[in-house]
Amino acid sequence: MHGKDIKITGIRKDFGATNVLKSIDLHVRKGEFLTLLGPSGCGKSTLLRLIAGFDVPTSGSIEIGGRDVTRLAPKEREIAMVFQSYALYPHMTARRNMSVPLEMQRLSFAQRLPGAALVSGKIRQIRKEIAVDVERVCEQLGLASLLDRKPAQLSGGQRQRVAVGRALVREPSVFLMDEPLSNLDAKLRNQLREELADLQRRTGITFVFVTHDQKEAMALSDRIALMQDGQVVQCGAPDEIYRVPNHVSVARFVGSVA
Ligand code: ADP
Ligand code: MG
């Protein structure tokens, strides 16, 4: 898998008369783990949703891997997103939860092929490929023994792992996560944190991770973009932000001044 870079230029977002993102410029490097860190309400989720394509900016542009995606639908962006709540289908097993998005992606293409016999053969082949891809991701995430369970039979941590797995099987270039660990207890949070960092190193996917938790950001990130009131006030390696805060509000937030 190969990550792609994200170039955010002059992004502004208004909701009605309210200006939520002011003017954001940010370059997420290919294959890095970048965290958007900031207090609740500063605009992290709004920015992530714009990168994902769930909403369009009022002005400014977003490029992924050099391609202007500002007005493209999420499915045209090579991204996958994991949310704070797991959003799994309750009536489906973990295996089905992970295969369904892939089927939608790959079978919609097969169904457009001419010839019924060709189509059913092709569909069988695609289903097999999907099963192999799901197994591979499950090995990586330690999910293999849980594949036949439904969400109600899984713990919170296991559900979130299935949600991560479901996003990963699509082999995204960019992986977007909005506070994916905040519903988990401290022990699981630490464990999943390690797994995510490891996953990023092994896959080379570009990770954009949202949190309001400084410790989490410090532990996980190659770089942190610190947000405040709809702006990125500083972007740099964790130790740089901690040791050389460029603004008193940064220093206060990361706790490097009293
Ligand atoms: P964060 O994720 O950092 O907590 P959000 O991006 O969710 O912050 O929200 C930033 C601000 O934008 C908040 O004041 C929020 O109320 C406002 N906001 C977010 N989405 C909408 C929306 N769809 N309509 C109006 N206001 C919104
Ligand atoms: Mg949020």
Automatic annotation (TrEMBL):
Record localization: Cell inner membrane
Domain ABC transporter: 6-254
Chain segments annotated as coiled-coil in the UniProt record: none
Keyword Translocase assigned: yes
Entry keywords, A to Z: ATP-binding, Cell inner membrane, Cell membrane, Membrane, Nucleotide-binding, Translocase, Transport
Molecular functions per Gene Ontology: ATP binding
Organism per entry: Xaviernesmea rhizosphaerae
Record flagged with keyword Transcription regulation: no
Membrane topology: Peripheral membrane protein
Shown residues in whole-protein numbering: 1 to 258 of 399
Designated name of the protein: Glycerol-3-phosphate ABC transporter ATP-binding protein
Family: Belongs to the ABC transporter superfamily.
